[in-house]
Specification:
about 180 residues; mainly beta; eight-stranded antiparallel β-sheet; four-stranded antiparallel β-sheet; about 10% helix; globular
Length: about 180
């Protein structure tokens, strides 16, 4: 009621690939512009667990270095402020059980289908709950949504596998090959 905005959440489920995608649309039905300062396309809360998170970083000719860290209390993650995702920081993050390896254990994967600034964050609260978010962070982002207009966040892709990191990667590869890449590739 304060802003007159409507929030629509869009989910697409690909059960044969163990993939869920999500994005949101914010519609300004009010009389005044509304400033969007942060736009997280996906949020997932996990009640409890001992997790690691994995990010990919690199540089020219040395892309996709694998960095695995224990999820401690507070906020952790990765972002890009360059105006583009790239070989330096990729809008991908995995969250896996501390005991997960290549072929066994629980592994969640998150990827933002977007080539600009992004923020992937994971936060563990004092009760041990873990919140994972991916989207457009508040740094270098701000959008003034005029009355009668709509803002759509980039789509985020999420998967989960009980078969470790390889199971997660197979889900992503199948999804990207069959649903994102043009057929000729």
């Amino acid at each position: 009621p304060l802003t007159g905005c409507s929030l629509l959440l869009y989910y697409t489920v690909f059960p044969d690939k163990d993939i869920i995608t999500r994005f949101f649309a914010l519609i300004n039905n009010g009389a005044q512009p509304v400033k969007i300062e942060k736009a997280m396309s996906l949020t997932l809360d996990i009640e409890t667990g001992d997790f690691d998170y994995i990010i990919l970083h690199g540089k020219h000719a040395k892309e996709r270095h694998f960095q695995r860290e224990h999820v401690g209390y507070g906020m952790q993650g990765i972002c890009s402020r360059r105006g583009a995702s790239s070989h330096q920081f990729n809008p991908f993050m995995a969250v896996c059980g501390h005991d997960a390896d290549e072929d066994s254990g629980l592994a969640f994967g998150f990827n933002l289908v977007y080539s600009g600034n992004f923020l992937n964050e994971i936060e563990k609260d004092p009760d041990g709950r873990v919140r994972i978010q991916t989207g457009l962070g508040e740094e270098n982002f701000g959008y003034l949504l005029q009355p009668g207009k709509r803002f759509c966040a980039p789509e985020a892709v999420m998967t989960c596998s009980a078969h470790g990191l390889n199971g997660m990667l197979v889900n992503f590869h199948r999804f990207i090959k069959e649903n994102i890449l043009p057929e000729g590739f």
